[in-house]
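All the exercises in this workshop are built on plain-text protein records. A record pairs a protein's sequence with a compact description of its fold. The structure tokens are whole numbers drawn from a learned vocabulary of backbone shapes. Once this layout is familiar, the rest of the handout is easier to follow. An example says more than a description, so a record of this kind follows.
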Amino acid sequence: METTLNKSHLDQSDPSFEINEEIERLKIKSIKLEEKLVLKNLALNSSAYSTIITDNKGKIIWVNNAFSKITGYSFEETINKNPRILKSGKHSKKFYTDLWNTIANGEIWKGEIINRKKDGTIYYEKVSIFPVLDISNKITNYISTKEDITEQKKVDNALNESYIKYEELAYIFNQSPAIGFLWSENEERTVEFVTDNIKQWGYTPEEFYSQKLAFSDIIYEDDKLHVMNELSIKIEAGKERLKQHYRVITKAGEIRWIDSHLYARLGENNSVTHLQGVVLDVTEKKKAEDESKYQLEQLMQADKMIALGTLVSGVAHEINNPNNFVMLNIPLIEKVWFNILPLLQNHYEENGDFSVGERLMFSKIKDAMPLLLGGINEGSQRIKNIVEDLKSFARKDSLGFNQDVDLNKVVQTSINLTANLVSKSTDKFKVNYSNKPALVKGNKQKLEQVLINLIENSCQALTDRKQLVKIEIQKNCKNIFVKVSDEGQGMKSALLRKITDPFFTTKRNNGGTGLGLSITSKIIMQHKGSLEFESEPGRGTTAIIKLPIQNG
């Protein structure tokens, strides 16, 4: 039962009065302290920052609501535990040792810690740990305030990754011939952005940004009208991806070929506001294509010339035989004529004119006959000279067969020249080059012609894109072997024996003449080598070229 003293009945000089006053004062003070504690506790629990209070040994004696919300540990689960319950394993032992040494020396520690929630989720915190000192400067407690910065970290990491990717992309762009552009959709094609590698043409980005230059200013004058009109037509037709091939002028005045790959950026009402994309300098490719086309034309011409040589050789034989007969007998006919002429003349003088053939009278033929025989003799000689000239022309080769030829390079060039056919014919094309130069004496252009012909034959023999075409270069101490094999339709042995015969072909309906392998075989023979074939129906064909290795 609580007893209350009535102050009015107490004498102020009575010691009980002072005690009562002190009790009342302490009660009021206690109430105020309790109210402050409630307010402080409410404030700490209302904070979004996680707060932990430990004793001087690191044992947790209090956490606020934010701690429980962030970590998943309740107040009851945390009390008397060590903060290491949050340990993620992401920091080294030294990290924690340095932290503890700092606060144990009475200093404040600040930093970032990667912790683990109750459910195993990793999260990041920005942490401040304050030592609490008593009046004798001894540490009694530690207070740790922590801010969850996980989302901030994600944003920072994403920004960092984006920046790295941007830097990588910029580096790739600036190290490549592809130039990135962003144009305004206007008549001049004002440049709003261009990569630094525009400098390869002698221009700087600043020249475009200052609008001293528009992209239309660097288009080659002869191409400009067509390029701009074509672009406008495609945009009006609603095409979003645009490709063009034209010429530009560098600052030094050099003409460069480019492929332009653009994408239309749409604004309100789906109207085009900008064009973005890349232009790729393809000048060297263009030159290579032109050179390849020229070389191919030269090879085709060489093939025709060799075909002409084969044809001329056959025709020459057929012409020379009867022509030689004429040339050998004309002198005999002349001798007979001049021997019989006096007899004919006497008969003419004694009996008058007479017929020596249909409507031919002796009086008219006797003076013309020497001219006719001379003309026949001269014509035969002319035929002989023409045939010899044709044979000599067809055989003519200014390069000869004394070049130092690396068959690795011959194969490589032949592959380059047939790349389009190969890509259209098969998905499986393999080449095994010799580890060292495969040198022979010969004619590089003619050997390229051989390889091109064999590659074309292999591609044309395929019936499925999954079938293989393979080229191998092998060598021993005496010879170099080049094998061109395919997994195509193959052929029977009866056909195999005929494939190098002139005018024999299995592709007559597809325009084949039968001269390709005949010429190929002849070229290899001219190189003192051999060309053999192995084939089985349905299993493909292998052409084997054997050439003597270059000595010295």
Summary: The CA atoms of residues 249 and 255 lie 5 Å apart. The chain has four domains: 47-148, 159-281, 287-395, 403-548.
